[in-house]
Amino acid sequence: MGKVLDYLASETKGTCYKSHRYCFDRVDIPSVVYDDKQNIIFSRSKVGETDKGFTASKSLGELAKKINRQSKPLFKFFLDGSRRTYKVDDVAYNNRIYPIVAGQIGVGCCIRENPDSFKSFAFENYSALSLPECANKDNQPNELFFNSLTTKINDLPGLKKRNISLEKILPYEDRRLKDDEKYEQKGIAKIQDEMIESEKRLVARLARERKLNFDSYLIKDGSLQYQSSKGGDLKDLAAIKSNYRCVVGVSKSFNPELCLDQFNRSIAKKIADLKLFHRTPVFKYMTERSRGVEFSVWYLRIRGINRTVSPFDGVLKIEKILVTENEMEKGLDSDEIDLISANLINECFPTCYGSDNRWANHLYPVYLTETFIKSKYLSDVYFLNLF
Amino acid sequence: MSKIIGKVAATEKIPTTIDEFYFWTDKERILHPFDVVKVEHLNNSVTFGVIEEISHITDATSYLTSFISSDFGDVNLEANTHRVGMNFVKAKVVGNTENIYTPVLDGRRVGLANQAEVGTALGLDKIEHPLPCGYLEMYEGEDEIVLPVHFNSHFVLGPDGAHLNISGISGLAAKTSYAMFLLKAIQEKYINKIDIKPNESAAFVIFNVKGRDLLAIDESNKDLSKQDKQIYEMLGINSEPFENVQYYYPHFDDEHPNTYAQKEDVKYQIDQNKAFKYKYVYEYDRDSLELLFANIDDSTGTMDSIINYVLTDQGNFGNIRNWSDFLGEVDEYLKPGKGGEITVMSWRKFKRIVRKALTNPLFAKRISNEDNETRLRDSINHIRKNDIFVVDIARLDEDMQSFVFGDVIKAIYDLKLGQAGEQDDIPKKIIIFVDELNKYASSDVPKNSPILRQVRDITERGRSLGIILFSAEQFKSSIDDRVKGNCSTHAYGRTNAIEISKNDYRYIPQVYRGMMTRLKQGEYIVQNPVFTSPLNIKFPNPIYRQFPNG
């Protein structure tokens, strides 16, 4: 087809190269990708819960059983965001070559009313492009220029015929690259940020509609440590943290090097040695990414070490934003932490064993939400050929 | 679109085709094989499908996933979320309202059909010359629909196709009841001249092979429920018993009761002049002797030679007038040097076979019309339209049953071929019903059996002569290929797993075969050339008197 790219090149006065198109997510690069974020700044008091005397691990198996027998599950909503990014071409501006990055973004929230009813509650998916800022050759504001370009591209007959439109064109910085940087990563980061914005919007909607309360918590797949972004409708997490009163972030993977206790000693071994259904004490910290927001973090083992292949398999990293002043001062109520942990234990079966290698750390409702979102993507071949 | 129950799924590995499609549906939606579904298709047309298979799947990749998901084998685990699962259903395409047979498209909505649509889908709405053959029940609860099903009588009774075969295991299949249900519908159709040309007529010859099953078919079934009566009404059949019935009992004495009927009942029926006792008289019936050898393997043809010797009046056989003299004459041939080319050994074998039969009082010296005695052949020659002759052979031994059956078949054949003299009022069609066809036309019966020959003749040429065979047996696979191959209509009742593994069932979809092992009493899967698909039908309880103890 090529018409979108041809139009883009002519509209931005660049040159397209008809380069090889591929999906970044399909290129296997051996690396460890953690769900959580780096650069933790420890709070003065690193104990993040009201029970200050508790230093070792705590078993929640019995509480989980009791909850399973006596009451409804705490978690009713499950949220996940996902993006699939593609390199669709290279474009030349000012004798420099920049990649054109495209992405499909999907953010969904599922609701569980009873064990047999698992349905989509809210869902957003759209496509976006990421171009270097210098695609805007004049001094027109970026927002205006790229919005106008988006509208023009969406009017192209090729896209209209297929009833497909681009939601946004996101400019990435075209500053000189550092040694280990690539423009592709900047483009991908823009698409990632856009997905996070979409996640935040969804949480905000749930909060606005009063869907989240002390009987209906939300599990968000991955970390809650959102970066403060310049763009987006919900710029600062600090401003919207009240939306997260009943939201728990559950990370399947985490960097054990960053697990430190109040004396800055690594607790990686303690986590690895956690007994089944035990949790660590809660730590409190801030990140550079989300200044002004304090997080409480703890670890919980949901699978026996004899069932998994590595010591950190079967351990979840759980985050909760400290919302009230009381929480920030005294830490999260230990009873609430126990309740959340016990309910997470009750979510550990069934499993996605056989379908996902991360089964030991995956919670089935989250896995279903993720599968739902991914099922909505256009196929890679189809998407790549739209351009 | 009426009630939507799912959507079509066409995948890379399992695409939709001209013949079939798959759709997913809620795991708690109750559907059955044979249910009709409809799908929105191109040009606002609707494609109809009949459900063939229903499977339930989850996202578990293996049994191990399931085991692990239950906390590594904890049977008491109650999970917060049940594994996501759904039913996917295979449906066979049976029609499209605009005759568009390109495969149905992925994601198209699948719904339940209403009564009229089910009729259209199964080709029931355009059936000419309808003959009630049962009713369909489809869907569950508030969606349930019931509709009558009709054969095209021209495909059951000729001229376009003929003969019906019913198979199923004893008792559970209710084969006799189903055949009688159809015969009732046919008799009523002919008596009331519904969709019948003025010169058309039919009569019936029924063999009673079990207990007293069919020995009171002109008496009402007092236990017939209101519900059954309503079903008869829906099907347009009255719930009165059969009319114009005559019973033929084998002649009996105290030593040989020959029938399971109560003596008083027989006497009552004789007094009413609707029962007769049949006999065989040497002078007129010796031609039928060969029928006694129907199940005897005679590869060298010696028995045939002896029969020929007797029938051509060789030796002294031409002067004999009764069966005892006949046996006496046979004794003569046991003496050395009397039998000519036929060895004494062969005569001995011949005698052994005939003597056993001829000791039965059925073989008598003469007929007394005053005592309501008759020769079956004579009675058959006088069968008239709408008559039902019930020939009781239930208590006769197997060879004698074959003998009587063969004799009646031969008599009907001769009647229709004009061998019994030209008569104007011979019914156009004579419908014969016999259970346990395997006794007469099994694939194990010697190929030179005169009865097998006659049965084959009827199924192959009977349609043009107006002789229609309704037959039943436990195992269809044991029936001669030519006999069952010529039946246009097949009814499958409850059978067993061994039977459905036979070649005869190879072309029936696996799920339908499975269903055959689970059919309830009064439920049949029927195949008829006018139906677009096999149908799972039911029929009401019999309208005639039932004997609880057989």
Structure description:
The complex is a heterodimer of chains A (387) and B (550). Chain A is of the alpha+beta class and 387 residues long. In chain A, 28% of the residues lie in helices and 27% in strands. Chain A contains 11 helices and 14 strands. In chain A, strands 1, 2, 3, 5, 6, 7, 8, 9, 10, 12, 13 and 14 form a 12-stranded mixed β-sheet that branches. A two-stranded antiparallel ribbon of chain A has the order 4-11. With 550 residues, chain B is α/β, with parallel strands linked by helices. Chain B is 27% helix and 22% strand. Chain B contains 16 helices and 21 strands. Chain B has helices at 63-69, 115-121, 175-191, 226-234, 263-271, 282-285, 302-311, 323-332, 344-358, 376-381, 398-416, 438-441, 450-465, 481-485, 497-500, 510-516; strands spanning 4-8, 20-25, 36-40, 46-58, 85-96, 109-112, 130-138, 145-152, 164-167, 202-208, 245-250, 275-278, 280-281, 363-364, 373-374, 388-392, 429-434, 467-473, 489-492, 523-527, 535-538. Chain B starts with a strand and ends in a 12-residue tail after the last strand. At the A-B interface, α10 of A face α1 of B.
Structural class determined from secondary elements of chain B: alpha/beta
Largest interface: A-B, 21 and 21 residues
Number of strands of chain A: 14
| Overall helicity of chain A | 25-40%
Please report which band the strand proportion of chain A falls in: under 5%, 5-15%, 15-25%, 25-35%, 35-45% or over 45%: 25-35%
Q: Helix-strand pattern of chain A, N to C?
A: HEEEEHEEEHHEHEHEHEEEEHHHH
Widest β-sheet, arrangement of strands of chain B: 15-12-11-16-10-17-18-9-19-20-21
Gap between N and C termini of chain A:
7 Å
Q: Main β-sheet of chain B: number of strands, strand sense, barrel status?
A: 11 strands, mixed
Q: pLDDT under 50 segments of chain A (min length 5)? A: 28-32
Q: How would the global form of chain B be characterised?
A: elongated
Number of helices of chain A: 11
Structural class of chain A: alpha+beta
User: Residue ranges of chain B: pLDDT <50 for 5 or more in a row?
Assistant: none
Helix segment count of chain B?
A: 16
> Oligomeric status of the shown chains?
heterodimer
Radius of gyration of chain A: 22 Å
The whole-number mean of residue pLDDT values of chain B reads 90
